[in-house]
Amino acid sequence: MSRGFKGIIIALISFFIVLLASSAVLFLSGEKIAPNVSIDGYDVGRMTLAEAMNELKNAFDNNLNQAYMTLKHGEKTWQLNYKDIDYSYDYDRALAEAYSLTRQGSLFNRYIDSILIRMNKKDITIGFSYDKEKVAQFIKNISKEIDSEPIDATIRLVSGKFQITDEKLGSRLDQEKAVNMISAAIDSKSIANVELPVEVIDAEITRADLSNITDKLGEYSTSFNASNESRSYNIKLATKSVTDVLVRPGETFSLNKTIGPRLAKYGYRTAKVIINNEYVDGIGGGICQVSSTLYNAALLANLKIVERKNHSLPSSYIAMGRDATISGDYIDFKFMNNTPYPLYIYGEVKSNQVRFSIYGKNENKGRQIKIKTEILKKIEPKIKIIEDSSLPVGTKIVEKKAIPGYVVRSYRVIVENGKEVLVEPLYTDTYRASDGVTRVGTKPVNVQGTNSEEEEAKTVEN
C-alpha cells in the first residue's frame, strides 16, 4: 500500500471520528429532549421541557374541556364530564421519562440509545389521574333518578266484587358495579357509551297472585249494643283498620300490629274493659269484640291459630271458648296463612253487627268447618254478706252480682261430604268466678200499730 493511500485512509478515519464525536456532542448535550420522541402521538423531540410542557397542555387541556363519557339507561342519558371528576394528565412524569432518554448509563450507552431512538421512534404514554370519589358521588346522584321501589298489586272488595290494580316493577342501580365500569372505561380511554347496570326488582304481590282470591273461606259476625256510643265507635274504628288487609302465604297476621296502639290520640274512646276480673272504664273498650269476631272467622277458614287468649270473664256477645282478648302490646291475637295463596280480610260494621270475612282459594269445596265447645266444670262464686244497719231488716241489696266461673274446652271439626274427618282440640279455657257482694239490712222495723196494741195489753194486765 502506498503512502498516499494510507494517508487517505487515516484522513477518512479521522473525519469519521470527528463526525461521531460531533454528533455525540449534539445528541448528548443540551437541555432538549432527544429527536424522534413523542408523547401520546405529539412530537416533543428537540424541545426543551418548557416547550414540550406548553405543547402538551395546549393539546390535551383543550381536549379535556370537551371530554365526557355518556352513561345510558333505557331512554335516559347522562354526561360525565371529565373536568367534574378532577381528571388531569401527568405531564411531569411523561416529560421526565422523555427527557431521561439518552441520559442514562455510560456515555457509550447514551450514544447508542440516541442512535437507536433516531432510527426507531419512541412514543411515551401520558399518565392521568381522577377522583374516584367524585365518580361515586356522580353515580349516587344518578341513582336517585333510577332507583324506585316496586309497588305491589292491590285488591279491594267493592259492592261484592274484587277490584285488582297491577303491580309495578322497581329498579336499583348497582352503584359499585357502575363505578367499576366507568373506571375501566376511563383507564382504557374508551369512547363507547356505558350502559348502566340496573337491577329490575319484582313486586312481592302480583295481579296473578291476587287473582287466586276467589272464595270466601270463613265468615263470622257478632252483635253489640249500638246505643253505647263510645264502645260502638271503638269497634268501628278498629274494624276499619283490619279491613282490606292482605296476608301472604306463610305470613303471620298480628291484630295488635295491624290496629296499632289503642290510645285517645288515635281516636279511641273510653268504654268498659275487663281489668283484674272487673269491668272498669278504659280506653279502647270494645276492641276485644273485634278480636273475637275475627278469631272465629279465622277458625272457620281453617287457618292456623298462632296466639290467642280468652278473657278472664265470660263475654256477653260470644259463647265461652270462642272469645279472643287483646291488651296493650303483650296479649295479641295472631293467625298464620297456612294456605299456598294470599288471604284477603274484609271487615264491616252494619247497624249493631260487626262482621269479618276471609277470602282466599278453596281447593276443597266439599269441606265444612264447625266449632264445638263443651263445659268441663262450673265454678261457683262466693257471696259476701255485709250487714247494714242503715237498711231495714229483711232488705237485701245486691251490690255486686256474683258470676260463676267455667272451664271450657273448644274444638274445630272438619266435615267432608257430611262426615267428620277431623276433630281438632283447640283450647281449654278457664273463666274465673266473680264473687258477689250483698248488703243485708239489720235496722229494726218500727210498726206503730203493733206497738200500741202491745201497750194496751200491758195496761190491761196491770
Keywords, separated by commas or semicolons:
462 residues; alpha+beta; 5 domains; four-stranded antiparallel beta sheet; three-stranded mixed beta sheet; 27 strands
Structural overview:
With 462 residues, the protein is of the alpha+beta class. Helix 2 (49-65) packs antiparallel against helix 3 (91-100). It has helices at residues 3-28, 49-65, 91-100, 107-119, 132-146, 175-187, 207-210, 229-242, 255-259, 287-300, 448-461, and strands at residues 37-39, 42-43, 68-73, 76-81, 88-90, 122-124, 127-129, 154-158, 161-165, 170-173, 194-195, 198-201, 215-223, 245-247, 252-254, 270-275, 278-283, 304-307, 334-336, 343-350, 353-360, 367-379, 383-392, 396-400, 405-416, 419-431, 436-443. It has five domains: 1-27; 31-65 and 89-127, no CATH class; 135-209, no CATH class; 212-363, no CATH class; 368-462, Resuscitation-promoting factor rpfb fold (Single Sheet), CATH 2.20.230.
